[in-house]
């Protein structure tokens, strides 16, 4: 069976929106990515770390989706990474109310032997040195390395981030972060600059406004899947990356055409994610729903000239 | 030959952006709409009014595009409608620095005999009573009536606006205005509310984020055409409406499928408009460029599953 290696946080989140408060719930980039890749024909493993407070039911949940959780280190005396955030009416903006790194502060990722030759590697948002450490443990060149990151690392660990960016195939990043990383105002010139940093492809996520793909002197633009009511956008970007990676894991070739389809998959997966608080949608999602929504998305976006 | 009747302002604009100032230039919704419809296989006429200051060269320009300018009334003792605006870094927002209605204040539109049976009617942004007056002069039910409007009329002439909305086939409106008109926060519920007001279809324009089409229990969403550098967004919405109307004028049937294609045409036309100040792009646009960009847009947005 094919293998997808994911490194990312497995965490507890507390989310406030105008619609209500979530209480302490399962979260983390690694969690969201894996809940998405789990729907594809590839064995996913999460490399991460949690504390003794991390509930067994949450590990069981991930395992029940066929995700290999054995590379999630449990530090029984430590506490799980915790993030509390608040969204306003504009879903694209949020305030971080609290970040407690806890066990993440000294995370030293260990890639299991059997995943050192994973076909797809997804480096979820984490310290660039952790992402680099994962890449350094890989023994066989993956078919595709996908990196997600955020402005925090641009502000605090830019040189380490640039080093890992230079080693990946696809950088997935949001619009504001693309502008910050490239120091350019237009997304086109931003993408051009970022491609010079090493990745073959750049995917720019624009939240409710869709996503863009740049690379191979080609361009693709996609709207978002129309969601009637957004309840909680937490994890949408990670879920997008997971759906994107999941489709690539099933694709015979990895090229501009398959990356375009991967964006459709990522878009559809993310649309489920935002419809309920936290991981609720992703925990209950069925393959049929995904296929149905992909078909709808195609219908919503196709036209003839 | 088929006929497209346009009512809208023919005006002078003065535009300030971070890239510079335009000085006094040709503008107006009617102008932009007609410069777009002129590229399609239908005879366009503009019903409008200008003052004695309106330069002959600008009338000649419109006429040179095959636009029938005879229904543009010239009030030699009056002054042409003038608008001055300033854009900030967010192109979707602008400040009006000056609006001088001038001859527009007492505009009483007269539809020429030969256009009373126009197949396509485009009611550009103007006082709803002027739009209604045009509709009242129509003798043969048009294949399609398209209405564009803006928040100013919602604030100041809502009941008159609702009356004209009830009589049109397609309402073209931007996202903020759709929310204001419907008093709904989500664009989906906004569109549902607006459809109840009478139009068969609603097109919601989202500027650089594309457009959405609602109606017939169907939905379509499109990104914008990627423009490397926006120089001046003035007239983009009108040009979109013009391209949209132009394609419908050439379509055998007017249904959801042809409206989807019309959105692609509108999107591409608007993308030219924003690349230069004022009407500069639209004055020099060739049919081959439009077809080439339509092909590129299709390539930029198509994917297989």
Please report the distance between the alpha carbons of the first and last residues of chain A.
42 Å
CATH topology of chain A: UDP-N-acetylmuramoyl-L-alanine:D-glutamate ligase
**Shape descriptor of chain A:** globular
Overall tally of structural domains of chain A: 1
The CATH homologous superfamily of chain A: Ribokinase
Element-by-element helix/strand order of chain A: EEEHEHEEEEHEHHEHHEEEHHHH
Biggest pleated sheet of chain A: 9 strands, mixed
The CATH class of chain A, by name, is Alpha Beta
Care to count the β-strands of chain A? 13
The overall average pLDDT of chain A, rounded, is 96
Please describe the topology of this protein:
Two copies of one chain form a homodimer.
Chain A: E1 3-7, E2 11-17, E3 20-27, H1 29-37, E4 43-51, H2 56-64, E5 72-75, E6 82-87, E7 94-100, E8 120-123, H3 128-137, E9 144-148, H4 151-156, H5 158-165, E10 170-174, H6 175-182, H7 187-196, E11 201-205, E12 211-215, E13 218-222, H8 236-250, H9 256-273, H10 280-284, H11 287-301
Parallel strand pairs in A: 1-4, 1-8, 2-6, 4-5, 8-9, 9-10, 10-11
Antiparallel strand pairs in A: 2-3, 6-7, 11-12, 12-13
């Amino acid at each position: 069976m094919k293998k997808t290696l994911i490194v990312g946080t497995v965490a507890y989140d507390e989310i406030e929106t105008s619609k209500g408060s979530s209480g302490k719930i399962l979260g983390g980039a690694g969690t969201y990515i894996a809940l998405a890749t789990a729907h594809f024909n590839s064995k996913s493993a999460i490399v991460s770390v949690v504390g003794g407070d991390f509930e067994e039911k949450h590990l069981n949940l991930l395992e029940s989706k066929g995700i290999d959780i054995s590379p999630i280190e449990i530090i029984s005396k430590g506490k799980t990474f915790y993030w509390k955030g608040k969204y306003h009416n504009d879903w694209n903006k949020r305030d971080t109310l609290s970040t407690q790194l806890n066990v993440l502060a000294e995370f030293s990722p260990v890639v299991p032997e059997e995943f050192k030759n994973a076909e797809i590697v997804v480096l979820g948002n984490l310290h660039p040195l952790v992402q680099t450490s994962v890449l350094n443990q890989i023994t066989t060149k993956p078919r595709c390395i996908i990196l997600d990151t955020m402005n925090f690392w641009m502000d605090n660990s830019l040189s380490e981030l640039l080093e890992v960016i230079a080693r990946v195939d696809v950088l997935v990043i949001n619009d504001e972060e693309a502008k910050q990383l490239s120091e350019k105002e237009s997304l086109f010139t931003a993408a051009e600059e970022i491609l010079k940093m090493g990745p073959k492809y750049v995917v720019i996520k624009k939240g409710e406004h869709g996503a863009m793909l740049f690379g191979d002197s080609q361009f693709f633009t996609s709207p978002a899947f129309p969601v009637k009511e957004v309840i909680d956008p937490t994890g949408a970007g990670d879920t997008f990356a997971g759906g994107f990676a999941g489709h690539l894991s099933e694709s015979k070739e990895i090229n501009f055409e398959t990356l375009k389809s991967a964006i459709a998959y990522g878009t559809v997966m993310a649309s489920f994610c935002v419809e309920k608080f936290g991981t609720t949608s992703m925990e209950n999602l069925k393959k049929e729903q995904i296929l149905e929504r992909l078909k709808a998305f195609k219908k919503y976006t196709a036209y003839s000239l």
